[in-house]
């Protein structure tokens, strides 16, 4: 497995030592019509978003179906480049104090909103404080806890004035962190840290909800948005680096069935597609297939407030009855790695050891031990038989197949009958956040390149927890890791935290993600970050 995170950390160390300046734009548009273009010569990339975005409010759309698109409509102070490392974006340069806690960003004079307004430091201060405002109730607010005063404000123990983000003037933003954070430049490339045009948002608090009111500062502008159907983006002529953008348009379908998506790809209605699992063997060796790494985990959440999952042994029994290798070999069939822990491969410690390899397999299939644990757990709870169990997943053919496989494993290995239920994404997500599910399908894609991002999801107060599980030892380990300046000690704390998570088992993992995509030969330079979101700034279509 490639250790690209090592390169990232190396680049960040260079950034810490010196202020950064922007590089020259590269590439010019080809002239004349060619295959893949319309009769007018318009270059239109045809993509599938899968589902309706949850929200284009940067503080709310905390999922890939929102942020993959939003990442191309807006831009932060930094942007992940082709090599997956942060580079100057709206900020042309920055300075970092000797203690690593104070960052001063200098915003480009030609940074504009799509309506022609200047992008200002005040737009960033407004957006970041809004992200942390408890009234915003952003599920991504925890990403701002690195900022001095951010966590206290979000928890209702401080005020917006205590959050150390200050617009010194229109083009200078000063940010003070609570502790040195070597990956801060990576964190702020995340859509949660995109600016918001304060005057637009003040006049219309729902500015993000429709194409005709949306105002962005990224490579593309939102031209049309037919909800639950399709979106159209057009090249943003106000973008500071518009000369780099080669595409004229990006059309997004919203089809959440992989078989339909593939048929659209074959008929020329899409330029990229996922691979239907039942066609994996014949398609994976195609010259049009791209397989890339992705830092993320497919897993299931137990609701520990719902019977029978208040019992740790029952949770462990079900987790140990699942065979992850069989699921990736016979169900998903996309060359994923089976997951026996939560943190994915690819994160190297200061000593050069991969996190996943060091912490090993924290849960493995073991039917005999699972049967014993189930018996002990039922005895502890006084159950003659288990209460009814419902497994919930959001609607998609792939999710259904995995759920059916797990349902069968529970039945064959433990004699446990499970009912399946599905719901559309937005309905499913709201129910999961409200702890209305017993056992539910989930996924995690890293927001920034550090193992702590995986593990912080299960602290007691995290909006990402969604299990009802709370553990003081775990919370303390995560808090200590976030404030530990010694990297070796920090990693030891993270290793221990993951072990506590799996000793308690509020979740069980299925597989680590990769990115397996069919892509037309006419398409080039779509960047899919292992940690981060889809980049179309450099994409082209011949």
UniProtKB/TrEMBL annotation:
Residues 25-58 are annotated as: Disordered. It is found in: Cell membrane. InterPro entries: Peptide/Ni-bd (IPR030678), SBP_5 (IPR039424), SBP_5_CS (IPR023765), SBP_5_dom (IPR000914). Residues 1-26 form the signal peptide. One of its GO terms (molecular function) is peptide transmembrane transporter activity. Residues 85-464 form the Solute-binding protein family domain. One of its GO terms (biological process) is peptide transport. The keyword Lipoprotein applies. One of its GO terms (cellular component) is outer membrane-bounded periplasmic space. It is a lipid-anchor. Pfam families: SBP_bac_5. Keywords: Lipoprotein, Palmitate, Peptide transport, Protein transport, Signal, Transport. Residues 27-38 have a biased composition (Acidic residues). Belongs to the bacterial solute-binding protein 5 family. This is Peptide ABC transporter substrate-binding protein.
